[in-house]
Write a structure and sequence with these properties.
The complex is a heterodimer of chains A (179) and B (115).
Chain A lengths: L3 H27 L9 E13 L7 E14 L8 E12 L7 E11 L5 E8 L4 E2 L11 E11 L6 E10 L11
Antiparallel strand pairs in A: 1-2, 2-5, 2-6, 3-4, 3-7, 7-8
Chain B lengths: L9 H4 L7 H29 L2 H19 L27 H17 L1
Helix pairs in contact in B: 2-3
The chains are: A alpha+beta (179), B mainly alpha (115).
Chain lengths: 179, 115
């Protein structure tokens, strides 16, 4: 503290310590938030095709084709420790070969300040709904859920599943030709 | 810095730029208090507005204030100069400066040891 530079040093070091403490306190104020919101999901078109999957083993696999409705308001999730949300729509189901299948069909990033009210009607999936084999035809228990990853300023990165899901019933027949 | 020094006028060279020990202690205490005060206010305001950036801006304001108050060696930090010990009788009469008096004291001590 005897010279200008040594005072500058201790001032700077002290400021950094206080900033770290503030950030930690900010995390503490949001540590018990559960980030869960109700989500309404629905599907409009449900088709299943049997086509070769050239991205994998070139075998004929089941390809689900769906359009979905989604409506939710994520505003209450945002607080001073949330920078953005990464939303992803997952289809989860069981086949005779695999006990648990999870396919991400659609995703979206909602940043702080963006419109937090999502109201999609008849939306197309962003990614192909490929099954590993032929487990989609006639599958009547495919659960559609919306989950999100909360990206904070400081703290943990919670993965949260929205409350509310929709059960897709796939038809017993393959659709052939163009749609 | 050393290159400029010889060109500075005496008036500027003689400006006191030191802090005494008590002043240094107070300067440190002052910036700690100011920064923590601004941090607490900033935290509350940031929580109210739900903007952590507001907290940091208020903290930076506090840092600026405390930098102006404590980085510059204001005269309030020179109020308790060191009280040096009185000149011993063996010391030369010409040494009126307390610092040099101390030096002579040391020299005499060394001489004594040699003897």
């Amino acid at each position: 503290m005897n010279s200008f530079t040594s005072r500058l040093n201790s001032l700077f070091a002290f400021t950094l310590s206080v900033m770290a403490a503030l950030t930690f306190c900010c995390f503490l104020t949001t540590v018990f938030n559960d980030h869960i919101r109700p989500v309404e999901l629905n599907v409009a078109k449900v088709l299943v095709k049997n086509v070769p999957d050239y991205s994998a083993d070139r075998e004929r696999s089941d390809l689900g084709l769906i359009t979905f409705d989604l409506s939710t308001d994520l505003q209450p999730i945002f607080n001073w420790n949330v920078k953005q949300l990464f939303l992803y729509l997952t289809a989860e189901y069981k086949t005779s070969e695999h006990a648990l299948n999870q396919v991400v069909l659609w995703d979206k990033i909602v940043e702080r300040g963006d419109n937090t009210i999502l109201d999609l009607k008849n939306a197309h999936t962003k990614y192909y709904f490929w099954d590993f084999g032929n487990g989609l035809k006639g599958n009547s228990n495919v659960t559609l859920t919306l989950s999100w990853n909360v990206i904070p300023n400081a703290g943990t990165l919670p993965k949260v599943q929205g409350s509310g899901s929709h059960k897709i019933v796939f038809p017993d027949q393959y659709t052939s030709g163009r749609i | 810095m050393e290159y400029i020094l010889p060109f500075l006028p005496e008036k500027i060279k003689n400006l006191p730029i030191h802090m005494d020990f008590d002043g240094q202690k107070r300067a440190e205490r002052y910036f700690q208090i100011i920064i923590i005060l601004f941090a607490v206010v900033g935290f509350v305001w940031g929580y109210i507005t739900q903007q952590f950036s507001q907290t940091l801006y208020i903290l930076f304001a506090g840092v600026t204030v405390s930098a102006l108050l404590t980085l510059i060696p204001w005269s309030i930090y020179r109020r308790k100069p060191l009280q040096w010990q009185a000149v011993l009788d063996q010391a030369s009469k010409g040494a009126s400066q307390q610092g040099s008096a101390n030096m002579t004291q040391l020299k005499t001590k060394k001489k004594k040891l040699k003897d």
